[in-house]
Write the structure tokens for this entry.
Amino acid sequence: MLNLKKAIAGDVAEGVKAAYLDLKWEVPVVVKLTDNAEHGDYASPVALQLAKLVQGKPLEIVEEIVKRMPKKEYIGRVTAAPPGFLNVHISPGWMTARLDDVVEQDISADFTEGKGKSVNLEFVSANPTGPMTMGNARAGFAADTLANVFKSLGYNVTREYFVNDAGEQVRKLGESVLRRILQLRGEEVEFPEELYQGDYVKDLAQSIAERYKENEGKEFTKEDLTNKELIKKISQEAVALEQAKNEETVREVMKISFDVFTSDRKLREEGFMDKTLKRLTEWGETYEKDGAVWLKTTKYGDDQDRVLVKKSGDYAYSMADIAYHQDKVDRGHDIIFTFYGADHLGHVSTLAFALKSLSTKAEFNFPIAQFFRLIKGGQPVRLSKRRGEVATPKDLIDEVGYDAARFFFLMHDLKSHMDFDLDLAKERSEKNPVYYVQYAYVRLQSILRKAKQEGVIQEIGEVVELTSEADLTHTAELALMREMYRLPEVIVDIAENFAVHQLTYYATGLASAVHFFYKHVPVLAADDAELTKHRLQLVLAARKVLGQTLDLLGISKPDVM
């Protein structure tokens, strides 16, 4: 499908160049969707931008540009509006004539934005020292949808999960499990607050203790608390068990497929931090002071340089992240996303400065998933597994259903706090946004089923053969077509600003146009048989576009509701 907004911006730019040959102006032409169809489908304030440069009146500038704009078949007419807007009306005939292309061709066939480019999205990456959280779900669904968008534009997309199976927190999990094992045996041992307290630790303790007894005949004692190698071994086993549960959750519950699982422990064993530190030193990005190694982040705008290697000789926390991102660059990724929770905001700021020291043209992005609240009966729901309330992604999906859980999370900008209305998510009515969108798809399906029953078409998915070139002109037909042809620009905009919530807005707007069309246009009751065929072609095209939108969102396409 043609990206109309992009095409019109190019047409206006050509008109500007032709009208003002000597003008040195590199500002991109702005084209926006209008709020009122009477003012056109798209509008550009280009004349207002040019007024000072060419010393002219905006309305007169618009007239000069319009005279010299290339004549394109998709443009019906161009008008000027005070104080100096250039309004473009899309041709109804062009929209009607292109319906068969929409039905028959891949919607993304005209996209070239991602050709030859590689995108890496690392997300969820739930810490395997405990169960997956609801926050992982919010970022997970957003990142997965963004990956779908990039893929539709032709990018080579990699979904990556970083397994945090090394470091001090992993050691603490091993000690927590060992102390719980001893307590389960009736031993009197302390359990410091900084260790992991959840009930899941008891489950791990029981499972690991049984395995050791069965396979090695070992009974744990208090003396084992000083055995660092044993604690390390228990840590790895506990992490492996929790990681397996988390992977099952993303695969079976969240329905997200990852291309790569990267182990922090394996990277460390392969010396990836040593290699990166050596590179940074060779590039002149580090220095030694007070027995530590520092990274020159102040040269990139940071308020202070950052420690890479502590006085003790241990690597700082940020060193692993820097090395991991260098590893992604080494694998050939051009655009790199790392999704974090709101509690990592300070770390992300520091990391962004640190990564500027890497010798690479790769683009780094660090979306932050803000906090959210679950609301039930108008009141916040406390996340508590012990109390039997919603606490994990599985709990939520069991409560409201997969489609509702995913759609509701995607409705809100990841950067903003949100309230998740459990009551609304469970409601089976058009008040529920996901129900409203899916019901529009069902209505299109119902029209096609009836057309097959009446013998108008042989198969629901077949292209309708037209023998005339009559244009669709009903208000509801035009509104639906205008909304359909917007999908390419929405996809491109999301790839540029990463705001996947725009796709839910688009889905809702397209669904609204479908419902309006269904209510006011008698597809199978038209007096003219050829008009019926044209309208069926529109139904097929609308189903294709709405179906593609639901696929991008990761939402199912029901036949009946």
